[in-house]
From TrEMBL:
It comes from the Bacteria. Keywords: Membrane, Transmembrane, Transmembrane helix. The chain crosses the membrane at residues 22-41, 78-95, 100-121, 150-170, 199-219, 245-264, 271-293, 313-341. This is Uncharacterized protein.
Amino acid sequence: MSARKTAKSRPRQRPDGRKARIVARLLPILALCAWVVTLWVPVLDSSLNSLHTKESTRIVVTSLGDVPRDLSDLDPKFVIIWSCLLACVISAWLVDRLRIWAWATVCLGVAVLALLINLMAEPPTLMWDGQDSSGRWIGGMEVASPVWGAALWAVGGLALIAAGICGLIGERQRSSERIRQDARSRLVARQHRTLADGAARLLPLMSLASWIVMIWVPIMDNQATDEEGVTLTSLGLNTTGLVDMSPGVLFAWTFVILSAAVGLSMDPPTWWSAIVVAFGVSLYFMLYGILAYPPTVRWRGETASGESISANIVGFPAAGVSFWALGSITLIVAGISGLIAQRQRRRLFR
């Protein structure tokens, strides 16, 4: 009887939300894997449509949009979603409080599904004409139809929405005592913030500002002719839009934005500051590569007498090089300051 009473008198353990938070962090990886697979597995394909013939051009849509001939043909909508998805996967393991992250992830999942529905409702089409072997004119229309990649796309969108919901549930299930302890720890940390801590948080903003300035201030520039020149900005070569972003530029933008957001919104883990230093150094190597192998454009024209002439137009360093170097230095200093601040914080709580 006493054993039963003892068993009944035990306090019921409340869920602390750990499982839900782990699931919330893992589901975006599933969404990313689905999008990686759809680089090769088409989302829409006109070859399965009844209007398709051997003579017509095939339309294939992947997670990069219409299959591009080169990187300058990338659809900006898909580039933005790829950037947001990568930022979502990385930030899930950096953020301690998942509430804001969870809402942003739900919005991203809804946007991914909305884009898929829009593609299926208004699929890409192509009117074509040509000649057969007998010389007769032929023609028709290509319409892209959903294939297996569309199901993977939908799985990715639903995984993002589920990740956001699990994040919200996990935050709600965290015990009030744990929240009070975290609040006390954060209050003590804020009261004892040092110069190094402030530099680690604010300097990535200066790096982000430098990259924004380089949208209009060229890194490499040479307007040798009135018709064509070489202009390299932080958005890519000869561009003022997102469509010409190379993978390197896209990676740099993603990490610069992520560094600024992490520095302002949370206390990052110990290894994050070391990654910021490594990224700042890698930006220097990128700049060295650009300066060592400057972008070139082949120019062709005619003289007054009608003679054909051609030349290689080479980009030369412009004012943007200084802003690039400034952005790299600030990230390196921010990472070192973060390591110093973490060491000071450990001494404080020792």
